[in-house]
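Bug report

Summary: structure tokens for Choline dehydrogenase differ between web form and batch submission.
Environment: batch mode, default settings.
Steps: 1) Submit the sequence below via batch. 2) Compare with the web form result.

Sequence submitted:
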Amino acid sequence: MRDQTEIADVLIVGGGSAGAVLAARLSQDPARTVVLLEAGPVYAPGAYPPALKDADTIADPDHDWGYTSRGTAQAQELPTPRGKVLGGSSAVNAGVALRSRAADFASWSEHGVEGWTFEDVLPVFKRLENTPTGDDAFHGRSGPLSLRQRTESELTPSLWAFVEASVARGYKLVHDFNGAEQSGAGGYPVDVVEGVRQNTGLAYLTEEVRKRPNLAIHGDVNVDRVLFDGTTTTGVLTADGTVHAAREVVLCGGTYGSPAVLLRSGIGPAADLTGLGIDVVADLPVGRRLQDQLGYFNAYALAPDHLEMTPAVGTLLWTASSEAADGELDLHITATHLMPGDASPTGGAIVLQAALTRPESIGTLTLASTDPADQPVIDSNFLGTERDARRILEAVKISRAIARDPAFAPFVAQELSPGDAVTNDADLARIIAENPAIYGHPTSTAPMGGADDPWAVVDSVGAVKGVNGLRVVDASIIPEVTSSTTNVTVIMLAEHIYQRAWAR
């Protein structure tokens, strides 16, 4: 082992959507030394490569962890993209900036967490954003993250035709999904400015922030495990054998990375740990409540006279299935051009991705071995309940009905998947199970919860139960997957925990 002599006040593992936020906020206090360890490359704010800046390029293979996961019984190995770069998945995602809904936060409260009602978090959402449009009651004007609302004038004709077809079929027109109303169809809010994706490495870790003498950022550092003296955190051990000492460690490695570090550190289900020869520090249900949103790509070839594909993102129908709980919006139908034009016989494509955003299915994350170079075993368990299977089938049927509406049909030449030959529910359900599309918003592998919550790994401010000096702050601590995309909610989560745990 090689020791780093300096002891950090706070050491952050992972510089993604949450970690970059915390590094910027914690280092505002010049008396606090902050070290950020990022497994991927650390680019200067002006040196991000084109694939990471271009909002129409997602899941860049040069900045990806290379994870795979089990989706369904019929789809045992799915590519599972996660960003490996300063900025994390906010640097490789589709740039969608949807907030979670009030009903989502109400479900968190059922797990005994405190301080996470919509009334608690709305001021935080407003504080983190700068956007020139929308109601002042819901929006901020001067925060670090630049958000913009997609309008009809900037969208492709086929993307807007999807909205018009949705409205023609009885859904409301929504002008601002981050405002008072989410049920209906409209353009996305995005963290994209002049075509550039605003990842947290850009928005929070500006050149000025990176010059702070009390902040050190190290790239290409893979963390093996957290080190303890008894149950008190003393630092971390990296894969190359280096010890980084710290008074407090914060894991921000995401829904897959953070639980893997916890498990290697001896925090997790005792039987699983002892089976791998890991000494148990805290017996907690790490990795036992993985949730992700199942999707299906309902793809179309654009008509030859409507081949425009920029911008790629996009429009949305956010609605409730026939089995949704009161006040719940559990289905997304998104319209994007996130499919190569050369995959279409006409040279242009549009994808209507149907997604179940509030699944009841629960998956797992476990370790394959104690080697930090080995990826964790991810089982999303999509279609784990019959109700989930019925609801995703309903979503795809809604998607296909919109595509056949007279307001949208002239913009497409043919259905590419599943194809017009698929006409009955049994065949469609089989095809969905065989071809699930990861929507990419995994949560809940180290969830927040109160004293009586059997799933809880951390408390309401991310402190890991049963140990001292260790927190987790990222999507893994969300108690239940939200009905939205998750990126802006994770940024808010980091901002809110900073205020509650450190800024007082």
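Above is the batch result. After comparison, the two runs are identical; trailing whitespace caused the diff. Residues 386-403 form the longest helix (18 residues). The chain has two domains: 2-52+199-290+443-501, 61-81+146-197+293-438.
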